[in-house]
Task: inverse folding
């Protein structure tokens, strides 16, 4: 979801990646981590590399003001970025929709598949959908308030109900 004019970025959040191999969880040294804005995926904002332990340094990224997180408002309280991780001899992975909150560090764990073990495509995409408050989703299907307890499956009530016959023994 694009940031609105009233959502000009005023604060900073932090991002750090931890990159390892799917085989034996060994850290990948020198993996390239590219960060782009969700609204402009062709323009790289930051490009960092992993160290000997497979981790990147922590970098600052623009976020909406912290005040958006303090009370329910129409403005989205986080920024959304795309993360692309590549390393020689490994499949490339892209994470679309990584959320960065103001004043917080988002840690993205990435496990890369060695090329000789991959099947087919050499790039994989993971999409994190928008939060239900800010995304466009179909409306909830209306359910009856009175549920048939003889039905099999799960029964979902519209509110918390504590049965009258519950007895709790706490030692």
Result:
């Amino acid at each position: 979801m694009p940031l609105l004019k009233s959502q000009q970025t005023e604060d900073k959040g932090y991002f750090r990646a931890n990159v390892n191999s799917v085989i034996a969880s060994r850290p990948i040294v020198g993996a390239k981590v590219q960060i782009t804005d969700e609204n402009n995926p062709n323009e790289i904002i930051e490009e960092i590399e992993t160290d000997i332990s497979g981790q990147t340094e922590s970098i600052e990224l623009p976020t909406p003001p912290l005040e958006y997180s303090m009370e329910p408002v129409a403005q989205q309280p986080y920024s959304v970025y795309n993360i692309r991780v590549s390393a020689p001899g490994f499949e490339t992975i892209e994470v679309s929709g990584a959320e960065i909150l103001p004043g917080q560090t988002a840690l993205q764990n990435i496990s890369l598949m060695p090329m000789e073990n991959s099947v087919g495509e050499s790039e994989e995409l993971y999409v994190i959908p928008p939060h239900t408050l800010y995304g466009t989703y179909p409306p909830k299907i209306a359910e009856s308030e009175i549920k048939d307890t003889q039905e099999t499956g799960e029964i979902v009530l519209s509110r918390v109900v504590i049965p009258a016959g519950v007895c709790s023994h706490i030692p």
User: Anything to note?
Assistant: Residues 93 and 124 are 5 Å apart (CA to CA). Residues 1-7 have pLDDT under 50 and may be disordered.
